[in-house]
Amino acid sequence: MARRVAVIGAGSSGLVCVKCCLDEGLAPVCFESSDDIGGLWRFKESPEQDSSASYRSLFTNTSKEMMCFSDFPMPAHFPNYLHNSQLLQYLHLYAAHFNLLKHIRCQTTVLSVKQSPDFACSGQWEVLTENSDGFQETHIFDAVLVCAGHYSKPVLPLKDFPGFKTFKGQYCHSYQYKDPDPYKGKKVLVVGIGNSAADIASELSRVTNKTFLSTRQGAWVVSRMSRKGHPLDLTVFSRFVELVALILPRHLLNWIGEEKANQRYNHRLYGLMPKHRFFDQRPVINDDLPGCILLGTLVIKPNIGEFQGSTVVFEDGTIEEQIDAVVFCTGYNYNFHFLPSSIFTGPGHNLTLYNHVFPPTLQHPTLGIMGLIEPWGPIMPVVEMQARWATRVIKGNLSKILLCFSPRCNCPKNADLQVEYIPYLDQLANQLRVRPNLFWLLLTDPPVGFRVLFGPCTPYQYRLRGPGKWAGARNAILTVWDRVEQPMMVRVVPEDHPSRLPALLSLFGVTVLITALYARGR
Ligand SMILES: Cc1cc2nc3c(=O)[nH]c(=O)nc-3n(C[C@H](O)[C@H](O)[C@H](O)COP(=O)(O)OP(=O)(O)OC[C@H]3O[C@@H](n4cnc5c(N)ncnc54)[C@H](O)[C@@H]3O)c2cc1C
Ligand SMILES: *[C@@H]1O[C@H](CO)[C@@H](O)[C@H](O)[C@H]1NC(C)=O
Ligand SMILES: *[C@@H]1O[C@H](CO)[C@@H](O)[C@H](O)[C@H]1NC(C)=O
Ligand SMILES: *[C@@H]1O[C@H](CO)[C@@H](O)[C@H](O)[C@H]1NC(C)=O
Ligand SMILES: *[C@@H]1O[C@H](CO)[C@@H](O)[C@H](O)[C@H]1NC(C)=O
What we know:
FAD/NAD(P)-binding domain; five-stranded parallel β-sheet; 22 strands; binds flavin-adenine dinucleotide
């Protein structure tokens, strides 16, 4: 009988886990507490229990060719960066194409996951669920994949802001923020400088009387748009760039990154300049922020010193009066209250995971925490690779990994959520034997080899060979730029204007050269 796997959550991570289970001949049952799939990308007018939340204007910060699943490119007519409703549409297309819905039970919340009494020999789990009628049920599973997301528990450190008790205006966490309308004509303070803070502050600054953005450390802010208007991630995430980055010293790389960012607008002039170097932290991706600063509708402020009623005193001594509302974009923590507390053994009671997936303290690798990472690139292809890898581990195919779960083996541990995009994908792909063989490709299939080396490191690269090989991968790699162009090249444009200037200049150059040589010869 096929091994049964519980998948907790039906966001992008849960869907791809169900699909990978089916690919490996496992029997998945996916529990989703809300009434439909999509997780973060299913916009909700008000936050739901245990779920991540987004604002109406949320667009992706990673482009469609980089963030799609590896055997299911996004429709060619989709824009390069998607509105949340379009990403949801893609997830529905994916679920329909691979027939995933019949394995998903909506309105069913997982209350607890416990080791079964004979866990030591079976590695099985008891999963307690509750449906919308309050009916509780216990199921036995051979393995559990946790896909509950890690943006569902907002962090609101009000104690860090002296005198906040005296503030009588409205306040909320970005988790509750939906629209700018309630803030029309008001004076609003946004706290934090992550991607959400930058989005929300620039959106607010268009309708408010004034918007302030308070940041302790500042940030490097980059645009979605790279050279010639190409999507940023298509130019940055390539194997060739990765190789060059390996050779160059880090401070030179930082200098290049900072130089590029400052060429668009000087981060010092715009009050954004952080203490840290460019590659020390993920840059903020935002196109509107600098424009709003230039218009003066958005003003950057340092850390908050204290609140005195509706007056805010900042650390540099400046004072802003009559602040009507505060939006705290102070981040999230993960919330896996249904998991046994025994697996939280890292520093500060943190989760420590083998290869960012399996808690190494368990005797069996049958509990996977999916997507608990913050890669520099798109997260969906990374979770897909984790799912391909984890389902094989669960099946017992990767015996080398299983050795790590014997008490004697020293597991490499990594509590840090940051992972490097291509190296982490390659590391898992290596164990699966699906990493593209560059040398072989360049010899036998140069057009593809060339694109794998110099082009964007798209997810399709990991479907060229090995288990899970997809016949469409080669073509998908060759047509990346067609799908990038299609949504934009919708108008017949005139030919480039021919210019004689370059020809004239080279003629002039050649003449000078010949004259110089002739003069020397004499
Ligand atoms: C504002 C914002 C913007 C982002 N933009 C991008 C981007 O542009 N590109 C990118 O790559 N990443 C982005 N991310 C990261 C994002 O988290 C991932 O893209 C991804 O969609 C997360 O999917 P997930 O399935 O892991 O989690 P979620 O989408 O949060 O889904 C988790 C699901 O689990 C369900 N659930 C939770 N607990 C239970 C339970 N106990 N029982 C049953 N069901 C449960 C929830 O209802 C939910 O449906 C963004 C994150 C945020 C917060
Ligand atoms: C902001 O409010 C002040 C005082 O009420 C007013 O003078 C000013 O015109 C307003 N500015 C905008 C942009 O609404
Ligand atoms: C991990 O532990 C540290 C303390 O060592 C704590 O500050 C931090 O918040 C913890 N992280 C998570 C995600 O719980
Ligand atoms: C996109 O935004 C989300 C939410 O702030 C963030 O977690 C993710 O790291 C961002 N992606 C990139 C590539 O910066
Ligand atoms: C993976 O496992 C299946 C059966 O579970 C087996 O038939 C197959 O040969 C295994 N493959 C590898 C590469 O070990």
